[in-house]
Amino acid sequence: MPTYQPSTYNFYADQYQNPTQVASGSQNSGKFDVGFTPEPFNFGQQAGQSTDFRNRFSSFLGELETPEATRDRFANRYGYEDLADQYFRSSEMMGNLGSAINAAPENIKQRTSGTMTTQSQLANIQNKEVGELMKVYSQVGAVNEQQGQRLAYIEQNLNQAAQLELAQQSKIMQPWMMEYEDNAIVQARQYSGYTFANQMELERLLANQQAGLTWSNAEAERANQLAIAEKTFENNLRQVSLRGEEDRKTKQAPTDLATLWSSIMG
Q: Which are the contacts of 59, defined by CB distance < 8 A and separation ≥ 6?
């Protein structure tokens, strides 16, 4: 089973200048020497990141075993196809025997027509021939029933094996999901200019206010700027999710990880 292949693309180091540089000497007072100057969103860098993810994830999906292949693999292990063929042939034989049993009385009557066969003799012939057919029918039926039970047992095992295989695939897909979510957040932050440092700064300002400290005019203005940037970031992140969901509806694709990456990767 394929495994997660981490990216060699440099996502985080030197992606863009951090617009929030925190002055280490002023952290105790809760004041920050910063300038809110986000750089333009780098669409070229986003394209490189998207291509890298798409190539690696497409390769990963190509190596995954399909549900059909999984079923075939376990079917071969349990001898499912041979047993299913035997079950079909025994069922067909039972159908033919049933038809022969139903037609036997009339066939015997026509065969003995015009002979000196008495009614008692005719009954004996019918009982004998029909009895022999019934005996064979019973024997084939017993075999057919055993084959059906074995098939049902194998099919149950096949379903369980498929469920375990899908669960394992979902497990190994988790790193891809985590990277996808990271990509969405990074792109939303880049697009809005709201970095993680911005978030920490806003949280620090709000914590100071809740602790009873009074903001200066500069801090109040800064908090307002950061709050607007945070809202823009949240809206961008929400649009990424909505665009991906709309893409899946348009393409009538299942909402699983195999198509989820297209939300932000185009």
A: 5
Q: What is the pLDDT of residues 195-205, one digit of tens each?
A: 888 889 999 99
Residues 18-68 have pLDDT tens digits of: 433 333 333 344 444 444 455 555 666 666 777 777 788 778 877 888 777
Residue 34 token pair: 């910063």
Q: How far apart are the C-alpha atoms of 74 and 225, rounded to whole Å?
A: 60
Q: Which of 82, 81, 108, 101 has the alpha carbon at shortest distance from 141?
A: 101
Mind listing the pLDDT tens digit for each residue in 229-238? 899 888 888 8
What does the pLDDT read at residue 88? 96
